[in-house]
Amino acid sequence: MAQTFLRRCLALMALLAATACSEGEGTEARAQAPAGMGRTLVVYYSFTNNVRTIVGELTKAVSADVVEVQPAEEGLDYAANGYEIGSSLIAGIRNHPDDADSYPDIKPTDIDFSEYDNIIVCTPLWWSQMAAPMQTFLFRNGQKMGGKHVALIVSSSSSGISSTVADAKRLIPNAVWTGDALWINDRNRSQTAVLLSEWLQSQTFQTSTETMKMLITIAGQTQIATLENNQAAKELAAKLQEDPVSVSLNSSGDFEIWGALGFSLTSSDERITAGPGDIILYDDSNICLFYGSNTWSYTRLGKIDGLSGSGLRSFLKAGERGIEAILSLPSDATEIKTLRSEPSHSGEDIIYSLKGERVTNPAKGVYIKNGKKTIE
Q1: Could you tell me if 177 and 228 lie in one domain?
Q2: How many domains does the chain have?
Q3: Secondary-structure breakdown of the chain: helix, strand, coil percentages, each rounded to the nearest 5
Q4: Which domain holds residue 265?
Q5: Chain segment 310-361, per-residue pLDDT in tens
Q6: What is the CATH number of the domain that holds 189?
Q7: What is the pLDDT of residues 225-268, one digit of tens each?
Q8: Contact predicate 129/161, CB 8 Å
Q9: HSE-up of 61 (CA within 13 Å, CB side)?
Q10: Are residues 371 and 281 in the same domain?
Q11: Can you tell me the distance from the alpha carbon of 3 to that of 17, in angstroms, rounded to the nearest whole number?
């Protein structure tokens, strides 16, 4: 009897201990990533291990591939003698930012950036600037990150991060920035998990199912187009995020209107047959809007939604020259509500949500039906 009672007491004590442990684990702060976040790459450099600790916390929340930037020459103490080596490197980059020889060498990295939707750059700052090894990495790879959704986390003792943010924007000129950079410093470092959680939720990361939309306006009429999920289309979207782009187009070959964008995009040409409504990149810097068909070596950019036949030819001003088109992004409902388009020849209503998504069976709400704002 005494042994049975003792066993029950021990079992009760073990249960209470396990409950206490699980409650303690349950209250531990942990960052939470946004739902549906697309494939993500985390790139970091850490000298004092502060950034490495941040990345460790970040990857508890975000499923990501992680690449560490490492100096080619090991064992250098950048902080010795009043940060003599580190400040000298920063001064060299600041004086000659376009000279590859200004950047300290780093160990090679082999990254296929086309595999990623989002890139999170994590770096310390040196003398208010981005740490030199990370600047080297971005100097070598920033152009490859064009069109990607890019976020920035900066660690410092107490210095502000505005100059480091400026370095990132200089080195990744065509990024789609997801929001404000996160600043973790000695005063808030103990709250890293909470800060990361709040910051992650505030960022506009690309989701794995995200469809990019573009608006095309010609002669006051606007149509929605769906962009491809490729590098050229993402770079175009990044350009349009800065400002709308105006292009002058001319008819050609009785199948397209085309003209120079004024900038180049990363092409991935293949021999394809472009058809009515297709949006095509030709020769890296020309955009072609098709109302007919042609077979050539092209890169697809997207497709105009909801128009075909004579309606498409009318919208594109087929056969005319000097056609002014404005390319832009639908940022909110106030931009979408100006759309005007024609119903299809089959009599089917063409309906979009205010986010620019085609809808076949709308529930109650506000929509764009045949180019006009309506309430269903």
Answers
A1: no
A2: 2
A3: 30, 30, 40
A4: 213-375
A5: 999 999 999 999 999 999 988 643 333 333 333 443 455 666 665 455 666 7
A6: 3.40.50.360
A7: 999 888 899 899 889 988 899 999 999 999 999 999 999 999 99
A8: no
A9: 22
A10: yes
A11: 21
